[in-house]
């Protein structure tokens, strides 16, 4: 099976109308470039509480909904799947979800992924958890015969999520990030944290910038899974959007701090190296943590002598 993906990035802002214009512009670019799916970054439609704006007090939900309807209409018009990052309002005083809407090529929301691991401590008053409620489900959907999953930003710190998606048969992951808007002071602090040697070697001098690309490559290779990774391009952005093949190879990357659309093709029939293909399913489904057969041998049992 083949699927053309547009991994999209732009400078996410608190201005919902501005974000909507970027989303719709890049949807059109994606279609013009032959993509079947346009993948957008974390809360790119609503903006990010704690980053673009302080809180959801007086947030214009009606405007978000009306702009969302325009995006749905365009998805139908273009016959384009859209993975859209936004905030999902809950009832009463419950904090909203940090979500990815899965919009099909008929302009219908077919599912929604809510960020499972929002950043913050157990008080739920810091970082993400000061503004968002964590999700409670995985999200698996099929596009053109390819089983897909969705994750958001800090979820990447939990390898168990990728294993669970693999257990569910996912072949392609849409992983949306929002790690940007570093002002000059914060960016300088980040640079000093790593020092000149690490900056020279790694290129993107922030914790996420250093760790995200190799982590995504590892998840791709260990799970034999294609991964689309995007980010806000708001300066300073910790890292640019990129795409990883199922063998762990990064096959495309956009410039950092610049809006753009990266086109990549998933081909599940492509013959690639998969180091753990013979034993992975047994590990995942049976919990057998070795290859081959175990031999009963007294010299194997004796671990205290040569």
Structure in a nutshell:
This protein has seven helices and twelve strands.
Outline the structure in words.
This protein is an alpha/beta fold and 306 residues long. The chain has one domain (2-277): 4-Layer Sandwich (Nitrilase/N-carbamoyl-D-aminoacid amidohydrolase), CATH 3.60.110.10. It contains seven helices and twelve strands. The protein has helices spanning 16-32, 61-78, 159-167, 184-202, 207-223, 280-286, 298-301; strands at 2-9, 37-39, 81-88, 97-103, 109-114, 140-143, 146-152, 172-176, 226-230, 242-244, 250-253, 260-267. The strands form two sheets. A six-stranded mixed beta sheet has the order 5-4-3-2-1-12, covered by helices on one side. Strands 6-7-8-9-10-11 form a six-stranded mixed beta sheet, with helices on one face. A hairpin with a 2-residue loop joins strand 6 and strand 7. Helix 1 (16-32) packs parallel to helix 2 (61-78). The radius of gyration is 21 Å and the shape is globular. The relative contact order is 0.15. The model has no long low-confidence stretch (mean pLDDT 94).
Compute the number of strand runs. Answer: 12
Instruction: Please give the share of residues in helix.
Output: 25-40%
At the first level of CATH, the class is: Alpha Beta
Q: How do the helices and strands follow one another from N- to C-terminus?
A: EHEHEEEEEHEHHEEEEHH
Q: Average pLDDT across residues?
A: 94
- Based on secondary structure, the structural category is alpha/beta
Global morphology: globular
Distance between the termini: 52 Å
CATH architecture: 4-Layer Sandwich
Largest sheet strand order: 5-4-3-2-1-12
Low-confidence stretches: none
- Radius of gyration from the CA trace? 21 Å
Count of individual helical segments: 7
């Amino acid at each position: 099976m083949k699927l053309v993906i547009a991994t999209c990035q732009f400078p996410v802002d608190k201005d919902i109308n501005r974000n909507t214009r970027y989303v719709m512009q890049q949807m059109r670019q994606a279609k013009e470039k032959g993509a079947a799916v346009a993948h957008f970054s974390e809360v790119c439609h609503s903006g990010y509480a704690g980053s673009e704006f302080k809180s959801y007090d007086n947030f214009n939900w009606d405007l978000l909904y009306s702009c969302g309807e325009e995006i749905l209409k365009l998805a139908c018009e273009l016959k384009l799947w859209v993975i859209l990052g936004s905030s999902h309002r809950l009832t009463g005083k419950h904090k909203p979800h940090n979500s990815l809407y899965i919009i099909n090529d008929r302009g219908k929301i077919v599912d929604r992924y809510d960020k499972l691991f929002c950043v913050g401590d157990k008080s739920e008053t810091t970082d993400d958890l000061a503004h968002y409620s964590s999700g409670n489900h995985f999200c698996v959907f099929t596009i053109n015969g390819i089983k897909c999953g969705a994750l958001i930003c800090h979820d990447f710190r939990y390898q168990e999520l990728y294993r669970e998606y693999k257990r569910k048969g996912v072949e392609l992951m849409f992983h949306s990030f929002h790690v940007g808007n570093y002002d000059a002071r914060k960016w300088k602090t980040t640079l000093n944290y790593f020092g000149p040697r690490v900056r020279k070697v790694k290129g993107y001098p922030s914790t996420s910038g250093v760790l995200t690309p190799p982590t995504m490559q590892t998840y791709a290779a260990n799970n034999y899974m294609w991964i689309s990774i995007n980010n806000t391009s708001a300066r300073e952005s910790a890292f640019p959007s990129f795409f990883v093949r199922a063998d762990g190879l990064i096959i495309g990357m956009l410039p950092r701090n610049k809006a753009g659309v990266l086109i990549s093709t998933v081909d599940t029939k492509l013959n690639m190296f998969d180091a753990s293909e013979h034993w992975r399913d047994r590990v995942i489904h049976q919990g057998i943590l070795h290859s081959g057969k175990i031999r009963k041998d007294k010299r194997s049992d004796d671990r205290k002598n040569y």
